[in-house]
Amino acid sequence: MQPPPPPAQQITFLYAEDLAASRRFYEAVLRLSVVQDQGRCAIYAAAPGGRAFLGVCQARGPRQAGDPRREGGVVLTLVSEAVEAWHAWLAAQGIACDGPPRRNEATGITHIFFRDPAGYLLEIQRFERPDWPAPAPPAPGG
């Protein structure tokens, strides 16, 4: 038996009680494009190339308190060379970050953390190590 081909795309789904506020955040602040509106869930292109997506959906109930970096938690990381520009943009939009961009020597990244309207922890990071794969160039017309 042959193994199946590797996944061609990826979607991370987040759930929010105030779906309208989350949609405004992802569309106006992070400037992600909606690729499919399912009513109770919007799916956004998280990066060019049609490979990475983010779904923001209506929650079935309130979020339970806890550290998002523990089992069952979620941290959404967006990779960008422009961490400092993102920090300035978020501040201009009234979004509080956990501090200015900082370098993590152990992992070879520079990053910031902030939260979306539903309380999810988001990170924007830049890899500063030679073993991180460069993104594929966008497909023609895409």
UniProtKB/TrEMBL annotation:
Stretches assigned to the VOC domain: 7-127
Matching InterPro entries: Glyas_Bleomycin-R_OHBP_Dase (IPR029068), Glyas_Fos-R_dOase_dom (IPR004360), VOC_core (IPR037523)
Superkingdom of the source species: Bacteria
The protein's name: Glyoxalase
